[in-house]
TrEMBL record:
<feature type="domain" description="Serpin">
    <location>
        <begin position="29"/>
        <end position="380"/>
    </location>
</feature>
<dbReference type="Pfam" id="PF00079">
    <property type="entry name" value="Serpin"/>
</dbReference>
<feature type="signal peptide">
    <location>
        <begin position="1"/>
        <end position="21"/>
    </location>
</feature>
<dbReference type="InterPro" id="IPR036186">
    <property type="entry name" value="Serpin_sf"/>
</dbReference>
<dbReference type="InterPro" id="IPR000215">
    <property type="entry name" value="Serpin_fam"/>
</dbReference>
<dbReference type="GO" id="GO:0004867">
    <property type="term" value="F:serine-type endopeptidase inhibitor activity"/>
</dbReference>
<dbReference type="GO" id="GO:0005615">
    <property type="term" value="C:extracellular space"/>
</dbReference>
<keyword id="KW-0732">Signal</keyword>
<dbReference type="InterPro" id="IPR042185">
    <property type="entry name" value="Serpin_sf_2"/>
</dbReference>
<dbReference type="InterPro" id="IPR042178">
    <property type="entry name" value="Serpin_sf_1"/>
</dbReference>
<protein>
    <recommendedName>
        <fullName>Serpin domain-containing protein</fullName>
    </recommendedName>
</protein>
<comment type="similarity">
    <text>Belongs to the serpin family.</text>
</comment>
<dbReference type="InterPro" id="IPR023796">
    <property type="entry name" value="Serpin_dom"/>
</dbReference>
Amino acid sequence: MALLVAFILLMAGFLDSLTMASINNDFSFTLYKELVLKNPDKNIIFSPLSISVALAILSLRASSNTLEEILEGLKFSLTETSELDIHWSFGHLFHMLSQPGDQVKISIGSIMFIKKHLDILAEFKEKARVLYQAEASVTDFQQPHEAKKLINDYVSQQTQGKIKEVISHLDESSLVVLVNYIYFKGKWKTSYNPRDTFKVPMMNIEDLTTPYFWDEDLFCAVVELKYRGNASALFILPDEGRMQQVEASLQPETLRKRKDSLRPSMIDELYIPKFSISSDYNIEGIPQQLGIREVFSTQADLSRTTGAKDLRVSQVMMVHNVVLDVDETGTEAAAATGVRALGSALISNPMKVIFSSVFLMIVSDTNIQTPLFMAKVTNPKGN
């Protein structure tokens, strides 16, 4: 079986990086808008990549309409791209992210906790391992407290203690718990001096040359701050009262236009809040809004897991935990997704940019051009 799967994968292709980035951006922005609807006027922080990978691995278990709904919900067109090429494209993305580097630390992975004595199809496990580097661990769900501790301890270790509890409840009926985690730590290419951090606290840096663009159509400033290595943070700073307009414009082509318009500019004074925000979403209902419905119903076809069709995903157990820390040295962030069977820009001459109200932040790996984390900061001190 392993040789057969490996042969099939060698025959597969993958989407080019720009196409994959556009699809992932489309999914990210759609998901963002749903989270904003459910959490108005609150901090929003999530890892679109962690959620999309968890759903993509889930699709390996699915067949028929259940499979089509998941992949189309992830914004793939099955008339243009085969299922295998979609998975291979995610595998290529994983390969790009796992390239060794001493500047930016990115750790992403998945693990399946499988009920003891459950007969999982070998092909499913092998594809999950080869494509998504997904480990498998046999777990005794008849001891739910111990199983929950095992899962949470594993995720805590993989995210350097940033995510301490991704699963808050388990019961004896659990068959498979799929967890995807991502950890990011990057240092600013140009760091801030802690002595210039005010009580607000606002970090301040002077005479910074960095990519910048003023969007005259949407009345927002776009500032890119680079990390040491292959990563950057894009900050979108709308004028007061313009955030909804900016959010409505979030589309892959709009983001690409803004990035293409960035030019190295001298910012005399840049003020950014020092903040730490976290969220633990039960994302019940959000996949359904993306068209992913059948997998949560009694009509779900997850027969590629065990061969049986009487498995479904519990809505209660589709959870997503995220932590984002931004300080003078850089950014540290972590997210885990579990699936169970100040932004106003004040600009003057000399140029001064101040994050004085709501703003957006998108952390991306520059190799794959895909958002690792996306945040809307309405209150730097927390919700």
